[in-house]
Design goal:
Blueprint lengths: L1 H42 L2 E2 L8 E2 L3 H7 L2 H35 L4 H12 L2 H11 L6 H8 L16 H25 L4 H9 L4 H29 L3 H6 L11 H11 L3 H30 L1
Antiparallel strand pairs: 1-2
Length: 299
């Protein structure tokens, strides 16, 4: 009996120690993550310009307006397109680069650093840089096309609603492919080298080794990367806002840019909070569904 009591006391002391170590992080999460989410849902029940001390309680009026807001649903559709394009463009290129650099060994280390450079630049700097590159009159892209006598391909890359979205997505893919490349290189480093030696002895070609050994063993990393891309695409904001502010004619509008414009440009803080709260619900639901879908496959 005394031994059981001592065991209980030891467990309580160990759990108390764990809690004390976690307490600072839990407090910060509560202040900077949980509380703003609660406040956002609370503000979605008001009409407020964000400056005046007077808030008008309107109940679920903002949510009803959101359900019938064509621009919001257009932005949501753009987010879905963004997810699809990000995954089918970024993942294959990142895997290909990772495999090539991994097989190149140490002599290709310099390329790992060079390819990773876009991730070291801020999104704002990249946005400003590509605004100049895309300029149809004086931009670098226009200059290259003219030099190659392909000037008939020159477009108003950010001003034409039909191609502006894809122009911006191309830049975002360029920015994030290095991140996934490093992610897959790390996953490839965990594949035992003995497998490659065994496959080589069995006469497997490089292609067979990739399709039958590397790619199946990379599948957990690919699933994780797809989930990261999905969540990141749903809340993407900075580079698109810098390059187009959601225009032209809402062609590049995303949920996050629409939320920002409502809250801080139109001073509709209540409606902006409604958009932010809806984003939270959508992203959380998508993240949970993706997690359980991949977990079910693993089981």
């Amino acid at each position: 009996m005394q031994k059981l009591q001592r065991d209980k006391t030891t467990v309580i002391k160990e759990n108390l120690g764990i809690f004390l170590f976690l307490a600072p992080a839990l407090i910060l999460i509560g202040i900077y993550i949980i509380w703003p989410i609660i406040m956002s849902f609370n503000l979605s029940m008001f009409e407020w310009d964000g400056i005046s001390p007077k808030k008008i309680y309107v109940g679920f009026k903002n949510w009803q307006e959101l359900l019938h807001d064509a621009i919001f649903w257009h932005a949501f559709g753009n987010n879905i397109k963004f997810i699809f394009l990000s995954i089918i463009i970024e993942m294959p290129i990142a895997i290909l680069l990772a495999v090539l650099l991994d097989r190149g060994g140490k002599k290709f280390d310099i390329f790992k650093s060079l390819f990773y450079l876009p991730m070291l630049m801020s999104s704002v700097a990249i946005g400003v840089l590509y605004k100049y590159i895309y300029d149809p009159q004086f931009g670098l892209l226009s200059g290259i096309l003219n030099f190659l006598h392909l000037d008939f391909l020159n477009q108003d890359w950010l001003g034409d609603p039909k191609i502006a979205f894809y122009s911006v997505v191309a830049v975002i893919c360029w920015q994030y492919i290095p991140f996934y490349m490093i992610f897959f290189i790390a996953a490839l480093s965990n594949i035992p080298h003995e497998l490659y030696e065994a496959a080589k002895i069995d006469g497997a070609t490089q292609g067979q080794y990739f399709w039958r050994i590397e790619l199946p063993l990379l599948s957990p990393a690919i699933k994780t990367a797809c989930i990261l891309s999905l969540i990141g695409s749903l809340k993407y904001f900075d580079l698109i806002y810098v390059m187009t502010e959601g225009g032209p004619s809402n062609a590049t509008e995303l949920m996050a840019t629409y939320m920002y414009k409502n809250a801080f440009a139109s001073f509709k803080m209540g409606y902006g909070s409604t958009v932010a709260s809806a984003m939270f619900v959508i992203i959380t639901t998508a993240g949970i569904l993706a997690y359980f879908a991949t977990k079910k496959e693993e089981v």
